[in-house]
Amino acid sequence: MATEKSAVFIIFGGSGDLAHRKLYPALYNLYKTGDLKEHFAVIGTARRPWSDDYYRGTVVDSLKDIDDDEKAMEEFSKHFFYQSHDVTDSDHYIALKKLASKLDDQFQTGHNRVYYMAIAPRFFGTVAEHINSEGLKTDGFNRLVIEKPFGRSFDSACELNSSLTKTFSESEIYRMDHYLGKFMVQQLTRIRLKNRTFEKSLNNKYVSNVQVTLAESLGVEDRGGYYETAGVLRDMVQNHIMQIIGAVAMDEPAKLDSESIHEVKRDVFASLKDLKPEEVDKNFVRGQYGEDDTGSLKAYRDEDNVDPKSNIETFVAGKMMLDNDRWSGVPFYVRSGKRMPAKSSRIDIVYNDAVKELGINPNTTVTFLIEPENGNSILVNGVDYQEGNQDFLKFPEDPKYFSQEREAYENLMIDILDGNKIHFTLWDELQNAWKYVDVIRQQWDNETPDFPNYMSNTMGPDAASELLEKDGNSWIWDD
Ligand code: NAD
Q1: Closest ligand 1 atom to 22 CA
Q2: Lowest mean pLDDT among 195-199, 309-313, 336-340
Q3: What is the residue-wise DSSP string for 417-476?
Q4: Tag placement on the chain: N or C end, fewer CB within 10 Å?
């Protein structure tokens, strides 16, 4: 049984893509499960002069693909209010404050507030500062949710963080990494705690290498402008890939609570083996997609809002090492790219021979399929773990274990309302991730790549395979 939660959500960027594709469907599903019921309201803000009714119509439209219960959608949308808003205009925050406090009374939300930054990153600091100067914070909880990207480098992340912390303490800041809301990433931690053999196997005695792949089949679509400022290194490696490595490599937490988990995760990021500028080219490969072999898919440089001479990477593969007792000597191979042959997010854990002493067949590979497969998605040597002939991963007994799955944004929304920071990125973790990625970025910015260097619908440049071959390894997920 769901416990009802209460808050006024203020969604900055309430007319945008993220709000409509992810946030409203997530809130609606929580409404249907009873996690949100009577005591909540949502204020959407954006520049356009919309009425509440018009806004509610857009909210209902965003739900059409997930439900046909018109009555429930209608009732749900009555909790939504619109406030036209320019992020730099102080008067608008005063109006917002009045509306929020009226809704506090109307819906009895306990003065709890979730401030959600679904706007361009350049506005994050300005909005937070106005929340402070116009006195929007209340005596209930006040939680600030920040979407990616959190800065473009270590220095800019520090700048952003210091502007946010003038208004919100670290404990009030929820840095979204939606991969941490994904079902199989969350299961990985739970399974580690439940399955002693699996937990015992995760170290340099038994693991030959770990591979994290976040592959997309699409190109940049209509986000060329954004992508030109980011590239896959900033867009995927600095945040999602680092956080997944944290979940695989962390020591066993004392408990399944936020403090214990972040304590062991923090150690992982602190033990990232320093990368020197002269080591970048040996350990990291970058790529940019060209056309496909039929010429029907555009090259990146021909996409809308992309510089025809752009040197932005759409593919990265790399080898990262951890300098700690548990993982020293084990390569963590990471890879992410656009226009790869399929969408696939996965973690492959490749064992060595010694693992037989744990009752696991030598050279076994265990794969966590994060997406697109959902639910029952663990493979042992490429076969569903329940159908294989090895017992060590026959867990858990309850076949329904994998069926209680929520979408990433729903999981994370519940965590925000519960004040649970397990699945959010903390500031010290983020700093170490940026410091590592900055070395690569700076080195790449000093060299001119020979782009495009892979065709659309392929596994990226050949150098990505050679990176592993040099070590006598190969990618488990290959076309
Ligand atoms: P979007 O362009 O679709 O929406 C931006 C919103 O900001 C709109 O509601 C717009 O009206 C509002 N806005 C713009 N200028 C404003 C101003 N001066 N004052 C007040 N409001 C203003 O963007 P999006 O794709 O929804 O992305 C929002 C944020 O979420 C960005 O930080 C983005 O990086 C992040 N994000 C988006 C996605 C996604 O899937 N769309 C995924 C991850 C992170």
Answers
A1: 40
A2: 195-199
A3: HHT--TTS--HHHHHHHHHHHHHHHHHHHTS------B-TTSSS-HHHHHHHHTTT---S
A4: N
